[in-house]
Design brief:
Blueprint lengths: L7 E6 L9 H11 L7 E7 L4 H6 L5 E5 L16 H6 L4 E4 L2 H7 L3 H13 L3 E6 L3 H5 L3 H12 L5 H4 L3 E4 L13 H18 L2 H6 L2 E4 L7 H5 L6 E4 L6 H14 L1
Helix pairs in contact: 1-12, 7-9
């Protein structure tokens, strides 16, 4: 698959780490550590909702603002929830949906993930849709079937033009925060299967346009091999995105892969 149709996206996911007061010094250090020009590589930091205002104040053309979650509801009596309009007002241009931690810890079902994807696209915010299998599912040979179901459920009801605007992140659950990583070949196999699914369900053009990222312990040491794969268009970076030096290495590698 020719990558010329797609941008490389290196997206950091801070999860529940750092404080709002740490955003400014982190960004200042990061700006000095990454290439001045990355025309084919988008850099994004997905931060806790409490940090979005700080990110917006320190807005920089090289670094996109991303949220980690959003409500499927527009507004109203939903105590503790954060709407699409709220993150949009704070400058978020990306938002993670369907992360395995939210599916496990907060009960985000495939139906809820689908509703969030629709809500984000309606406000022109790019969903970063996470899909991934457990170790048991992989061991039983159910990886592709499970990923296929998750992708189809999350994209249900979307038009092809909308699907082109979704970023899909393959994050094997067994490799998130464990230090284990899918091999380059394992990651490529699943990302290729996702792209083939998009081709069958929507069109070859849609398949060529959708950016597919790999998550699950991508770091400064293993990023080169993963980013060299033909169907991997970037990474959703967890722990390594908290360290300027490590994240900058991945950004530089992503810039070379563009």
């Amino acid at each position: 698959m020719n990558k010329k149709y797609r941008r490389v996206i290196i997206a950091g996911n801070w999860k529940m780490n750092k404080l709002p007061s740490e955003v400014k010094p982190f960004l200042e250090e990061l700006k000095d550590a990454i290439p001045e020009h990355t025309p084919g590589c988008s850099i994004v930091l997905c931060v806790p909702a409490t940090h979005l205002a700080s990110m917006s104040r320190e807005k920089h053309r090289r670094i996109g603002i991303g949220a980690q979650n959003v409500s499927q509801f527009d507004k109203g009596a939903h105590t503790g929830e954060i709407s699409v309009d709220m993150i949009d007002d704070l400058g978020a241009r990306y938002c993670i949906v369907g992360h395995s931690e939210r599916r496990a810890d907060n009960g985000d079902t495939d139906e809820i993930v689908n509703a969030k994807v629709h809500a984000l696209l309606n406000r022109h915010i790019t969903p970063i849709l996470c899909v991934g299998e457990s170790l048991e599912q992989r061991d039983r040979g159910l990886t592709i079937e499970h990923i296929t179901y998750q992708v189809k459920a999350a994209l249900y009801g979307l038009e092809p033009e909308q699907v082109k605007k979704v970023v899909i992140a393959y994050e094997p659950i067994w490799a998130i925060g464990t230090g284990r990583t899918a091999t380059d070949e394992q990651a490529q196999e699943v990302c290729f299967a996702i792209r083939e699914l998009l081709r069958r369900e929507y069109s070859a053009m849609v398949s060529r346009k959708v950016c597919i990222l790999y998550g699950g312990s991508m770091n400064a040491k293993n990023c080169a091999g993963l980013l060299a794969q033909p169907d991997i268009d970037g990474g959703l970076i967890g722990g390594a995105s908290l360290k300027v030096e490590d994240f900058a290495v991945i950004v530089r590698e992503g810039s070379r892969a563009e």
